[in-house]
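RECORD TYPE: inverse folding
INPUT: structure tokens
STRUCTURE:
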């Protein structure tokens, strides 16, 4: 279903932080942050940047009980858990740091954000593989739609995985935060609306993805998701696909390739070839690179808009990192694009978790393409497709 309160939300602030060169003393201040885990520092710094861009009154216009937080992460606490394990094994639990020990629970990363900004309406943490950050946006908007709050601070944070952990060769380290508020509130306080975001998530079982009809199942679910988000099939749509090489990732890639007007194939990362270190760093300054991590001269000139971003209708595949940060970073980049056509960020995990975020950049986006689908479960509805196993929620 479409809910007007959530459909009326706009993004007014974006904050991005990369671990490269990060200094908590510069980003946050010298007092109160030294003993926080790195991922907590990144998240607080990204939120600070987002609120600074949103301007005075972004949160303060409403009471603490009307402000909510939603955070996604896959690996914020993994390095800390390793450190705790080593300490307990070597000398005993009594030597654990009192300042760090509470962060054994991954929920504390979002709780620290809520404490920092007096967010008492709700505080949600998501850990679904790869889609956690987009699920944070989806559920946060859903909570706004049901009246649990009127302002939302949402995003994702990750810390690099320790050596030997699965995915350590594809590290993500940094954070992205978005401030969302009603369009009317932004207008009333003179804040610029950067655009709208809306998310639909669904599940594509790996064995279904690996079947002969895996791409067809993925295509049906993607079509349903975009339709539920209000996108009209006759409108141009730029797509960024953050995918790995798992059967689920390849099924989604093949489904998207079938729609691509530019002849992009599932294994084509870029016309000039792709290497793992060419991936854009989440949280990098948005003007430093084109949204897909390539400079404009890496593609044919007619495939790029004058400002160096992909033209409408372009489909780009971005290699997924180990966590949930890259898809949210791509959403942030899409919000910085010209206000001409919608942009979809699609991501999927090997486990089957899949999500689509429809981004409508610009100060006056079409409300019809920004309404979130807030139905849940696997019952009938616009996101249901593919029998009993391929389901949308």
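DESIGNED SEQUENCE:
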């Amino acid at each position: 279903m479409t809910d007007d309160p959530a459909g009326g939300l706009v993004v007014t602030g974006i904050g991005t932080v990369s671990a490269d060169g990060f200094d908590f003393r510069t980003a946050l201040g010298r007092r109160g942050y030294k003993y926080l885990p790195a991922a907590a520092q990144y998240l607080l710094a990204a939120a600070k940047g987002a609120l600074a861009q949103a301007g005075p009154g972004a949160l303060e216009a409403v009471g603490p009980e009307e402000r909510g937080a939603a955070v996604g992460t896959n690996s914020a606490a993994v390095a800390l858990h390793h450190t705790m394990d080593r300490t307990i094994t070597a000398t005993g639990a009594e030597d654990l740091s009192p300042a760090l020990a509470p962060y054994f629970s991954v929920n504390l990363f979002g709780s620290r954000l809520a404490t920092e900004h007096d967010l008492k309406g709700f505080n949600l943490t998501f850990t679904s593989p790869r889609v956690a950050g987009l699920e944070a946006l989806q559920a946060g908007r859903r909570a706004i739609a049901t009246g649990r709050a009127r302002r939302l601070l949402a995003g994702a944070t990750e810390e690099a995985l320790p050596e030997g952990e699965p995915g350590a060769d594809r590290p993500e380290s940094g954070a992205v935060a978005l401030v969302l508020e009603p369009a009317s509130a932004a207008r009333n306080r003179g804040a610029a609306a950067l655009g709208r975001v809306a998310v639909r998530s669904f599940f594509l079982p790996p064995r279904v993805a690996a079947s002969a009809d895996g791409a067809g199942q993925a295509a049906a679910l993607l079509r349903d998701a975009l339709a539920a988000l209000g996108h009209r099939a006759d409108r141009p749509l730029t797509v960024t696909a953050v995918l790995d090489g798992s059967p689920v990732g390849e099924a989604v890639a093949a489904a998207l390739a079938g729609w691509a007007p530019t002849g992009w194939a599932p294994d084509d990362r870029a016309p000039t070839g792709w290497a793992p270190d060419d991936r854009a760093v989440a949280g990098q300054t948005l003007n430093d690179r084109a949204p897909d991590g390539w400079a404009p001269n890496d593609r044919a000139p007619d495939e790029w808009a004058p400002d160096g971003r992909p033209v409408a209708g372009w489909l780009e595949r971005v290699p997924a990192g180990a966590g949930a940060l890259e898809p949210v970073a791509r959403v942030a980049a899409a919000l910085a694009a010209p206000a001409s056509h919608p942009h979809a960020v699609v991501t999927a995990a090997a486990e089957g978790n899949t999500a689509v975020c429809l981004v409508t950049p610009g100060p006056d986006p079409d409300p019809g393409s920004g309404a979130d689908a807030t139905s849940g479960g696997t019952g009938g509805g616009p996101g249901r497709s593919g029998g009993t196993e391929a389901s949308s929620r």
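NOTES: Residues 36 and 100 are 7 Å apart (CA to CA).
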